[in-house]
Amino acid sequence: AQSVTQLGSHVSVSEGALVLLRCNYSSSVPPYLFWYVQYPNQGLQLLLKYTSAATLVKGINGFEAEFKKSETSFHLTKPSAHMSDAAEYFCAVSGDAGGTSYGKLTFGQGTILTVHP
Amino acid sequence: KAGVTQTPRYLIKTRGQQVTLSCSPISGHRSVSWYQQTPGQGLQFLFEYFSETQRNKGNFPGRFSGRQFSNSRSEMNVSTLELGDSALYLCASSPRDSPQETQYFGPGTRLLVL
To answer: How far is the C-alpha of B61 from the C-alpha of B37, rounded, in Å?
Structure first.
């Protein structure tokens, strides 16, 4: 079965500082990996996804993530945090073996990002 | 294109009642997935429908059910509500149910069970 671990349920940074949100996955098959963001009282919005093309994936709002198979990681970064980045971020994996992957994303527990002025 | 819409946005029910939530996917999308989000358990997959057929199901009791109509709109039903069913219910649509497809989420229905 697939699983996702997000290290750090809360991350706090200053405006302009580097954002690093950690995600490690477990999968028996080559995974497809996603980062979503959720603002209060809203649904999830896709930031970026990895589908076995380039290992460095660029997304919206200046975010990017690097797929590292040897480390089973897909960490999310942004060079300079903005106040508007404050939200909850979810890493997710799909593509389980045995035909159980239809329409199913397995999510990490989420990381709440706080940005201080 | 209009995004995924969910109705109602908020709902209050009492234990033992049943509830039906509705989801309209993005036009042209044939796959609809449902998730439950709670502070304790996070985001958990309920089930997925594609072309009116349930193709995948998460680990939830039979009180949770769903269906999809020929226009791809989907409903989920929870019978005999329990306090623990209080959650944000999210639906997501995608063109196909391939694992590399992006799922586009609606704003959710917040259910409170008293």
So the answer is: 16
